Amino acid sequence: MSNTLADDRIKRLKQTLDEKIQGSSSITIVPHTRIDFDAIGSAIALYILALRQKKEVNILIDDNYSELDVGVQTILREIITKSFNIIKYAEYKEKFANKDNLLILTDTSQKSLIPIEEDIVNEKIAKRKMIIIDHHPFGKSTIEATDKFISADYSSACEIITKMLFLSRTKFSSEIATYLYAGIWLDSNRLTKKGALNETHKWAGRLVENNADIDKVNDLFIEDYNNNQKIQDLVSKRLTMFGYTIAYLIGEDGKKYCSEDLAKAADACLKYRVDASFAVGNIGNNTVSISARSKGNINVGEIMEAFNGGGSIISAAAKVNDEIPSEVAKKLIKSLKPNFYINKEN
Ligand SMILES: [Mn+2]
Residue 225: what are its φ and ψ, rounded to 5°? Predict the structure, then answer.
């Protein structure tokens, strides 16, 4: 029953997109900074949608490509080869930030996660030239635009867009299906119990029927791990077991890591027969980052709260200042208690 309401909202989103795109001279799609598979997949589908209305379309990406996930870089290379128009913020500001330009934010609704100056954002909101599509819960810096579709009932922005395309019987290529599948795959924690929501499997299945290339998605995900010696070194050389159920990695005290690599290393540890994994490493500026992952039996969000961080049961993080990784790891191990198990019978 609640389904009908959700379907109505999705149809309204499609109508809003169609009307606003039609009424604009140019359309700029804005995925969040440090673009990931969900942000780029949904942006590509929206780009195609606007292009079909014969509009000038571009995607605003201000990231340094070399810092992105290697699989995401592969997708960017593919679409650039296909003449997708990707612009930096300087170009946006110079050529497109006029009153007829429509901004479509995807996979974020946070001011802090888009590379656009505040006065331009405010002007777009006031002129109702901004549409927001997001699956993250409302937060402190959520943009208060009128035309927003934000629902945490979906695993990913790609799931929202996929559902919208099918409900409106919009045709799309197998390449688009593959990109959308990659976004769903990432944000649903590879379609596992804790990441996939009510309808995630249904829409992922429809993409497969629409010739999404699952093998390619799998390759895109492996690519980053295979290409990243730092992550592989962490997992192969610095892994310790706590009891039989927790794996943890501690980066070398003097070596600098990036938080994304620590997160991926923690992810990679879940391939072992453990309930949870932690990756602790120095990320510079006197800060140690902890990335925590769980298969659902241990609430890592709660554990990270003790370190002034947070997150969900299966994925969480914290940052600790003025300490070295080995000391932070010691405290972490001390804090692990049996009561973090959610269901001891399982
Ligand atoms: Mn997402």
Answer: -65, -45
Distance (Å) from CA 31 to ligand 1 centroid: 10
| 104 plus 178 within the same structural domain | yes
Radius of gyration of the chain (CA): 21
Residue 346 belongs to some domain of the structure: no
pTM of the entire predicted model:
0.75
Q: How far is the CA of 275 from the centre of ligand 1 (A)?
A: 24
Q: How far is the centre of ligand 1, averaged over its atoms, from the C-alpha of 321 (Å)? A: 28
Residue 153 and residue 238 in one domain? no
Is the CB of residue 20 less than 8 Å from the CB of residue 147?
A: yes
At 126-142, the pLDDT tens digits run: 999 999 999 998 877 88
* 230-282 pLDDT tens trace: 888 888 888 888 877 899 999 998 889 988 889 989 988 988 889 999 999 99
CA angle 20, 26, 31 (to 5 degrees): 80
